[in-house]
Design goal:
This protein has helices at about 40-45, 130, 140-150, 160-175, 185-195, 225-230, 270-280, 295-305; strands spanning about 1-5, 15, 25-35, 55, 60-65, 70-75, 75-80, 100, 110-115, 120, 155-160, 175-180, 200-205, 210-215, 230-240, 260-265, 290-295, 310-315. The chain is α/β, with parallel strands linked by helices. β1 (about 1-5) and β2 form a beta hairpin. It binds zinc ion (2 copies).
Length: about 325
């Protein structure tokens, strides 16, 4: 099968012909129909996440089809032990021995993938293969982050990429007011955010017209943490949604005072996925995407890095 393989972090992926993977116990073989690109993929390629299996097939937002015709969605959480203190307390996202798709397990930048079916999702009807793919991480982790924002009415989204373009729609559906922050000067991104329901959009160096009850930071930029804190109302929360961020600069305690909070979101549980996928269909969330052929995975990653993707990038074998 054809695959795009990471051999050495810091180097582009290499197009390769690999043997068709063999399903082990509890696994199924999927023919990949679409695999969305995530910023986490970029962190792995750049060596910012330090324990990938190598060589590695990236990709953890996979829509694939089993031999009997069933369509499944494959997320980042690929396996857990089911027995550690986190698994036993409903927090399998924090499992001590978790294995992640496209990181410790080969992922979907390929024509075929083997997966543990217990961690796959049924996908909502009404979404094509490419449309469904970004729901599996951008949507799902974005949704977990939105839940951690509590019942915040005035919500800030820092970084308006694949996740934010989904979450703005869910937040609006829930009756929240959304303020979107892009790279300074990205007027196209700001226009896109307003089209999807943000009542205000501006650069991350700007102040929103109202205080925020919560902010979700999708961009991997630590300096946004104090920036978002300074835009919060009393008791507000900053949620860091990404798996990696540049260092957070020192900031005065005053920014945290009055019960403001900073927290991160790690991974997902299967319960998150079921809840989000059914909500996505109710909203209904509309996915804006660009598809690229599998061979152009490096191009897709480059464009994601420089912010040149409107919505989500999806690879199609
Ligand atoms: Zn566990
Ligand atoms: Zn992801």
């Amino acid at each position: 099968m054809r695959a795009m393989v990471l051999e050495t972090p810091g180097q582009p992926l290499r197009e390769a012909e690999l043997p068709e993977p063999e399903p082990g116990p509890g696994q199924v073989l999927l023919e990949v129909r679409a695999c969305a690109v995530c910023r986490t993929d970029l962190h792995i390629v750049d060596g910012e996440l330090t324990s990938p299996r190598l060589p590695l097939v990236l990709g953890h937002q996979i829509v694939g089809v089993v031999g009997d015709g069933r369509r499944l969605g494959v997320p980042w959480l690929g396996w857990t032990d089911g027995e550690c203190r986190y698994c036993r307390s409903g927090r399998e996202n924090l499992c001590d021995r978790a294995l992640f798709t496209g990181y410790q397990l080969d992922g979907g930048y390929a024509e075929m993938v083997v997966v543990d079916e217990r961690y796959c999702f049924q996908l909502p009807d009404g979404y094509g293969d490419a449309e469904a793919a970004p729901l599996l991480c951008a949507g799902l982790i974005g949704y977990r982050s939105l839940r951690m924002a509590g019942d915040a009415e005035r919500l800030g989204l820092y970084g308006f990429g694949s996740s934010a373009h989904i979450i703005v729609q869910v937040a609006r559906h829930q009756g929240r007011r959304v303020f979107a922050f892009t790279r300074p000067g990205d007027t196209e991104g700001q226009q896109f955010a307003r089209e999807l329901g943000a009542e205000w959009a501006g650069g991350s160096d700007e102040r929103p017209p109202d205080e925020l009850d919560a902010a979700i930071i999708f961009a991997p930029v630590g300096a946004l943490v104090p920036a978002a804190l300074s835009a919060l109302a009393k008791g507000g929360t900053v949620v860091c949604a990404g798996i990696h961020m540049s260092d957070i600069p020192a900031f005065p305690y005053e920014l945290l005072w009055e019960e403001r909070m900073v927290r991160s979101v790690a991974n997902l549980t299967r319960a998150d996925g079921e809840e989000f996928l059914s909500l996505a269909q109710q909203v209904p969330v509309r996915i804006e995407l660009e598809t690229l052929p599998l061979e152009q995975a490096n191009e897709a990653l480059d464009r994601l890095r420089s912010g040149r993707i409107r919505g989500s990038a999806v690879l199609v074998p």
